[in-house]
Amino acid sequence: xxxxxxxxxxxxxxxxxxxxxxxxxxxxxxxxxxxxxxxxxxxxxxxxxxxxxxxxxxxxxxxxxxxxxxxxxxxxxxxxxxxxxxxxxxxxxxxxxxxxxxxxxxxxxxxxxxxxxxxxxxxxxxxxxxxxxxxxxxxxxxxxxxxxxxxxxxxxxxxxxxxxxxxxxxxxxxxxxxxxxxxxxxxxxxxxxxxxxxxxxxxxxxxxxxxxxxxxxxxxxxxxxxxxxxxxxxxxxxxxxxxxxxxxxxxxxxxxxxxxxxxxxxxxxxxxxxxxxxxxxxxxxxxxxxxxxxxxxxxxxxxxxxxxxxxxxxxxxxxxxxxxxxxxxxxxxxxxxxxxxxxxxxxxxxxxxxxxxxxxxxxxxxx
Amino acid sequence: xxxxxxxxxxxxxxxxxxxxxxxxxxxxxxxxxxxxxxxxxxxxxxxxxxxxxxxxxxxxxxxxxxxxxxxxxxxxxxxxxxxxxxxxxxxxxxxxxxxxxxxxxxxxxxxxxxxxxxxxxxxxxxxxxxxxxxxxxxxxxxxxxxxxxxxxxxxxxxxxxxxxxxxxxxxxxxxxxxxxxxxxxxxxxxxxxxxxxxxxxxxxxxxxxxxxxxxxxxxxxxxxxxxxxxxxxxxxxxxxxxxxxxxxxxxxxxxxxxxxxxxxxxxxxxxxxxxxxxxxxxxxxxxxxxxxxxxxxxxxxxxxxxxxxxxxxxxxxxxxxxxxxxxxxxxxxxxx
Lengths: 367, 336
Prior knowledge:
The structure holds 2 protein chains of 2 kinds.
Chain A: H1 11-21, H2 23-39, H3 42-45, E1 52-55, E2 58-60, H4 62-67, E3 86-87, E4 90-91, H5 98-108, E5 113-115, H6 154-190, H7 192-206, H8 210-220, H9 225-237, H10 239-253, H11 256-263, H12 268-276, H13 282-305, H14 316-325, H15 330-357
Antiparallel strand pairs in A: 1-2, 1-5, 3-4
Helix pairs in contact in A: 1-15, 2-15, 6-7, 6-9, 6-10, 6-13, 6-15, 8-9, 11-12, 13-14, 13-15, 14-15
Chain B: E1 6-21, E2 26-42, E3 46-50, H1 57-64, H2 68-71, E4 76-85, E5 88-91, H3 97-103, E6 107-110, H4 124-135, H5 140-153, H6 170-182, E7 188-192, H7 200-217, E8 220-225, H8 228-234, E9 237-242, E10 245-251, H9 252-257, H10 262-269, H11 276-281, E11 322-325, E12 328-330
Parallel strand pairs in B: 3-8, 3-9, 6-7, 7-8
Antiparallel strand pairs in B: 1-2, 1-4, 4-5, 9-10, 10-12, 11-12
């Protein structure tokens, strides 16, 4: 007897292997995942707060400390703690300017030192007193994508905006799809009157004009990150997936394995979500990357029009809208557009790869 | 035919699928797939149901395990399906979902298409274990042992429980379906053309397996098929369906040797005989026309449009099942 265990692959495993074999989609996936994970380290990569301050023999970690501020009640640092009382000829109150502190320590030569993040600017920090001319300033060696019209560093805003855009799109997609799947599954599974009435209600919702509704709502409340996401989900975000899932459920429930599941006494909920849903996920997974692309664009568009996230949240759309006000500030248009183009096309490559891997003609036949 | 020997009594079972149309989705027509069928299933017997495609055999089976409402929400089922339980009979059609779940384990089904009857996303072990999860309170180890035991009973090995259905052949999959049906300790198994999707050599294996299991577990089978030779081999009694009605029912030998209903006679005359000499002696009855649409059934006897002994009175009412010989009924007043 040989000890070789027969390799048993689920359909999902086969599809994942196929996805991996598609280089463009797979490497795009790795790239975007790496960048997204890195973007969570933004506070220690792109920040105006020092990573480490060594002052008179004591060591401080301002960046890490403010990162955990919402969770642990970590202390605030003030300029006078490190002997910084004056910056650019003005008396300093509150937080130190660590870049100046670094220069100050070097000048003093007392063995104190400051370690700054790789890109030592914050997305919401006003650099008016540091930049050479009136903002916005063109890209230079310090500010690689220049500054915007309020004197904030464009690269820092792009980096933080990337994380916000992707998180926003993923969150909205997850919520919209959960609602869409649940409703589509209910309609498709129960059918009959539930289906007919449910579809009419969906038609009413799909008749709501998205942009107008958004404008009306935003005029009442300046939306936060979560509220804006919820608005996008409820004004229509959930609708698209209901059609696909409903159709999949209609097709799957006629198959004998569903009859078999019912005849052994499985509850409706279990039949829907344990038996049918795993077989109805193909459109969900295939459309998800494209939905994420769509929501990133939506956020940019809403920010561009001024109906998006409240300032001073770093946002790509807001930068573009600044750029359109004066075409001489080309870097305000070009840099966010390049960032957007790069992000969207990478996710579309992923989507293409997934669509290819999930092509029903290859693996999803039932044998 | 002693009364307490009956496991399932079906009385005047009707299944109608409404056809909706118009703006308000009103019923414009109905398909009477099963149109007043009555029969009994004895304990530990095999009742064969034969009939051509579209005569309502599969619908009858699915009506008995009560899964039709899912795929056809407006379906109307009337009549009585009485299941014997501890000496009394319970009408399954009158139960709600919760009450029905108590009796579901007693009637199980083996499906026609072994490729769609197993969930492609579940391991074989999970598929067979699920009835145990729902209907028993066994421990994990006991369930695993039961799954292995069931797999071995149907001629597979216990190691195969960690594989996916797509890694098995059609015959093996049908065995998995049988193991799943056995897992609830059923008393009646409805086999809906269980071998029609299989190779002939595999057909014999599966049928012999079913016969062995019947002996071992004292099961009743309702064997739905369109292949008369298969039904003849496995069944102790045979029922013949035509256009939603049961036209003849009797013991296997009686129906085969002396068919009473003209439809059964023509059906049997079409069965291939391997011996050319006896084939020459046989009178081949060729029916005229096609099966009428169940949407527009002829009045009276459903078979009268194709019958070779048709009389004008046939249009006047559905003929009842007459006892032509002992325990041999046929729904035609004009044959002996």
